[in-house]
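Please check both lines for our workbook:

___
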Amino acid sequence: MNNTTTSSPTNTDNNQRRSSSGRRKGFFAGLLALTAIAFLITTGCTASQRRALGEEDVKDTLTSYVKKALNDEKLSLEGHLQCTSDIDTASNMSASCAGITKDGNAVHGTLTGTANVENETCTGDVSVAVADTQIAIVPGIHCFDSI
């Protein structure tokens, strides 16, 4: 009589294998993410990428000023503002936003000044008009900071 038995992996063994496999995958995913972050930190952004990021900041800042000016006048937008911005290689900066108030009047905001994306500094003057009537002029703002 042969008393040998064969054993097959139990559910516990399978769960432990899956669990350790999942931990390895999580570890490698985390390691990959840290490597990517380290690469981005050490390589930094190109001048063009910094200008693009600065242009987004400028649009966000102008949007904030236009919305504040409308709110101060008890006006509200119909939909969203459409904004554009540009920072050239000589550090000249300009942005504009356009929209419509709920009562159908045109809204136009501008921000002009200088932006040094290397030093992360930006100053400019904001102007906001509704139906060709000036409702706000704000000189000397720091345009990489939202209000």
User: Anything to note?
Assistant: The helical segments are 11-43, 47-72. The CA atoms of residues 34 and 100 lie 45 Å apart.
